[in-house]
Specification:
about 450 residues, Chloramphenicol Acetyltransferase, 2 domains, six-stranded mixed sheet, acyltransferase activity, Sec_Metabolite_Acyltrans, Transferase, transferase, CAT-like_dom_sf
């Protein structure tokens, strides 16, 4: 079988690009600037955050026309997405949006031999590389590229919308706020119901100059110690496990069944997080003395002082870490791990957030997405995000999933399940052998 640039040649040929264009805000914006603050800057050396939405039916040209028109309108409100990264006179990063560079890159493509059902399968394939833009593109490239790129791909029976957002300017909450607002305009509204809040200085009014690498390639080369490290990189698999509402309730009930009456109940996230953490630890066949880390990227909008509004547009998340020995996690009852998560999440208050920011500002470091910890389970996204409410006028998406950027052994994305209620889709990336073990783990998949 022929391989082209590490990809199956037959896959590459399945997608044909038919048009490339730029979408501009529908009205002149003048010049607007938006600072990058301490909550944004650590993500400069992550990769563009990719999302994929799949829709059935419809006329491709008509749908794309409506999407592009709506995109131009919504960029008036979400102007940072039409800008570029730039540096001020002191070398501090910011977003600059003016009428010369206000643009979103849009690609139109055809993959008529591929159906929605194939892309909605639990197991991810290399085909995702071809329908979601900016795979392997670091956020630092926003100095030279648009901060948002979109690809519309015509499928055999529907439409795929692949989006790549520069993670240095927004988090998951802001991503889905934008997507919902874009859909609202496409459905015919002249205004959006929840305008974004853009004043980032209300969250952190600091200026930090970073020692940026010359390019993303230079940073990646510096971060990789040797060719041996590259060649020994594990083979990864990505898979979605779909948990129904009753299954989620059962997991939560099990975590809470032995709690003392005066104890604070465990939340759904804490219970599900522990369920995943334990299962992945079992699947990795760790030694009892091996450490394992659980990381959650927590929304800080209500944790900072003063609290920020839900419609704050930008990054307002921080990684919360907890670590324990694999033997302690697996030999104790379920509530052991859940209590560890509950404690560390509860302690991440405004003081802890401020202390973290102060420490980083005094000694700024550029991180990679893989710096989440040893034997890590890192959870991003949230089932609270209304991903299945993104209706552009032709119904809800059939499936929502991530692209391939920012994924490593142990990365987990939680999405609202399509069935509604409390159902959750758990998108997990694991080393291939561990994934095989996880699939066989009845304690995980047959709760």
């Amino acid at each position: 079988m022929a391989i082209e640039n590490g990809k199956d040649e037959s896959v590459v040929e399945r997608v044909k690009v038919i048009n490339k264009t730029n979408v501009y805000p529908s009205k002149k914006l003048g010049r607007r600037e938006c600072p990058l603050i301490t909550f944004d800057l650590p993500y400069v050396t992550f990769y563009y955050n990719q999302k994929l939405l799949l829709y059935k039916g419809g006329e491709f040209e008509e749908m794309v026309g409506k999407l592009k028109e709506g995109l131009g309108v919504i960029l008036e409100d979400f102007f940072p997405l039409a800008g570029r990264l730039g540096k001020d006179e002191e070398g501090v990063l910011r977003v600059v949006c003016d009428d010369e560079n206000a643009v979103v890159e849009v690609v139109e493509a055809v993959a008529e031999g591929v159906g929605v059902a194939e892309l909605a399968e639990e197991e991810s394939s290399d085909f995702l590389h071809e329908i979601v833009p900016y795979t392997g593109v670091m956020n630092l490239e926003g100095l030279h590229r648009p901060l948002l790129a979109v690809q519309f791909t015509k499928l055999k029976d529907g439409l795929a919308i692949g989006c790549a957002f520069n993670h240095a300017i927004l988090d998951g909450s802001s991503t889905w706020h934008f997507m919902s607002s874009w859909a609202e305009i496409c459905r015919g509204s002249t205004t959006i119901s929840v305008p974004p809040f853009h004043d980032r200085t209300k969250a952190r009014n600091t200026r930090v100059k970073l020692d940026l690498p010359e390019s993303a390639a230079a940073f990646e080369k510096k971060s990789t110690t040797s060719d041996a490290v590259i060649n020994s990189a594990p083979q990864l698999r990505e898979k979605i496990f779909r948990f129904s509402g009753p299954t989620i309730e059962k997991i939560k009930s099990k975590a809470n069944e032995n709690l003392p009456n005066d104890s604070k109940p465990f939340s759904t996230f804490q219970s599900l997080g522990t369920h995943i953490w334990c299962a992945v630890t079992r699947a990795r066949h760790l030694k009892p003395e091996d450490y394992t880390v659980f990381t959650v990227f927590a929304d800080c909008r209500k944790r900072v002082d003063p609290p920020m509004p839900e419609n704050y547009f930008g990054n307002l998340i921080q990684a919360i870490f907890t670590v324990t020995a694999a033997g302690a996690l697996l030999s104790n009852p379920t509530e052991f791990g859940t209590k560890v998560l509950q404690n560390v999440i509860g302690l991440h208050d405004s003081k802890a957030i401020n202390d973290r920011n102060n420490a980083w500002e005094s000694d700024p470091k550029l991180f990679q997405y893989k710096d989440a910890g040893i034997n890590c389970v890192a959870v991003g996204s949230s089932p609270r995000f209304p991903v299945y409410e993104v209706d552009f006028g032709w119904g809800k998406p059939e499936r929502v999933r991530s692209g391939t950027n920012n994924k490593f052994d142990g990365m987990v994305y939680l999405y609202q399940g399509k069935d509604g209620g409390k159902s959750v889709d758990i998108e997990i990336t694991l080393e291939a052998e561990a994934m095989k073990n996880l699939e066989r783990d009845e304690e995980f998949v047959k709760v």
